[in-house]
Amino acid sequence: MSYEAREPQEQKISVELTLNEALALTGVRFRQNHKLEVDAVQKIKKQLEEQIIDKRHSLQ
Q1: What is the CB neighbour count within 10 angstroms for residue 21?
Q2: Residue from 45, 52, 43 nearest 18 by CA
Q3: What is the pTM of this model?
Q4: Cα(57)–Cα(60) distance, rounded to whole angstroms?
Q5: For residues 55 and 57, what is the distance between their CA atoms, to the nearest angstrom?
Q6: Taking the mean position of all CA atoms in its chain, how far away is CA 1?
Q7: Model confidence pLDDT, tens digit, residues 6-52
Q8: Distance between CA 37 and CA 29 in Å, rounded?
Q9: Rounded distance, CA 7 to CA 34, Å?
Q10: Alpha carbon of 52 to those of 19, 58, 60: distances in Å?
Q11: Using CA atoms, how far apart are residues 34 and 16, in angstroms rounded to an integer?
Q12: Residue whose C-alpha is closest to residue 38's, from 23, 51, 21, 26
């Protein structure tokens, strides 16, 4: 059973990104600083992990 199947309602997360990080995620390329996109993706992954861990703890 997938996580989505157990949670039918649309859940939201909030992630604070810099303007340049957000632009990098839309496809804008910063030739001198690829790290912007990497940092933005890491922030999103971290927030997702925290949400999933919080859910698991509240279910136990």
Answers
A1: 21
A2: 43
A3: 0.70
A4: 5
A5: 5
A6: 22
A7: 656 788 889 999 999 999 999 999 999 989 999 999 999 999 999 88
A8: 9
A9: 35
A10: 26, 10, 13
A11: 18
A12: 21
Expressed in angstroms, the distance from the first to the final Cα of the chain is 17
Structure tokens given for 27: 């496809």
| Domain residue ranges of the chain, discontinuous segments joined by + | 19-58
**Total length of the chain:** 60
Q: At residue 3, does pLDDT exceed 60?
A: no
Residue with tokens 């600083």: 33
Residue 27, sorted as left (phi over 0), alpha (psi -120 to 50) or beta, turns out to be: left
Q: Round to whole Å and give the CA distance between 7 and 50.
A: 16
